[in-house]
Write a structure and sequence with these properties.
Elements lengths: L1 H17 L1 E2 L13 E2 L26 H4 L10 E3 L6 H12 L13 H13 L8 E2 H10 L5 H4 L18 E6 L4 E6 L2 E9 L10 E4 L2 E7 L6 E9 L2 E5 L1 H6 L9 E3 L2 H10 L5 E5 L1
Parallel strand pairs: 5-13, 11-12
Antiparallel strand pairs: 1-2, 3-4, 5-6, 6-7, 7-12, 8-13, 9-10, 10-11
Length: 284
Amino acid sequence: MRRSITVLAGTAALVTVCGCSVQAPGADGKARPPLLGDADPTASAGAPVTDGRPSGPGKATTGATTGATPSAPPPAVLWSRGDSGRAVRELQARLRQVAWLYTGPTGTYDDTTVRAVQGFQGKRGLPKTGKTDTVTWQRLLRMTHEPGKWELYLMGGQPAAAPDPRCLTGRVLCIDKTTRTLRWMIDGRTVSTVSVRFGSQYTPTREGVFHVYWKSRDHVSTLYDSPMPYAMFFSGGQAVHYSSDFAARGYAGASHGCVNVRDEAAIADLFAQVRNGDKVVVSW
């Protein structure tokens, strides 16, 4: 018995030096194997160990003990309600590609855009914030292609180029096929600018210098049986006039050779100002 006590005492001393802990003897009277580790020999039995020290009263334990993990920060918001510019226009064009937006692009992050983004987010299990954050944007980029110029300006709103030199004198409807715009100019000054649409390759709008020879407020085409409100004829049957189809579909369609305007208020105002004999310049 004395020898057993001596052996156990020696073992305990060795364990203290080596940094191990000894388990208490089992029911059979035999000592359990030592547990290797970095336990503090002063720690009380059963105390939780986190960073090598027991957690006492008032001492918080670490995440390793509680199982808590720090939450990831929310993704950064790129655009939201009220923003405007080319980036918003591209967002809207891409939303049109996946059939979440049917109007525009307008370049303004309005209520319609908010609802479209919410729908896109909800369909893909993302938080339906209606704000375009980095996660939403990356998902949309993977599903769409880069929009071309006339996807970005499908419903108009594009900037006009410098006017043709032939437009700088007199009263002129200055029509540019390249930028798809019409400037109403008086003595070199631009009074107003509107987006316009032209004929298709099969019924092209003629280019050159013309003059308004007839105005017809409620005109209806006898050839195509289609309404041509605020018509200002300048070359045969070709006229500048309002088009409800252009207003609805934008550049997805084309005229039969006329110069279409989609803004009814703008064409009504233009019709009131233009006179028979005013010059019309159509150029590339």
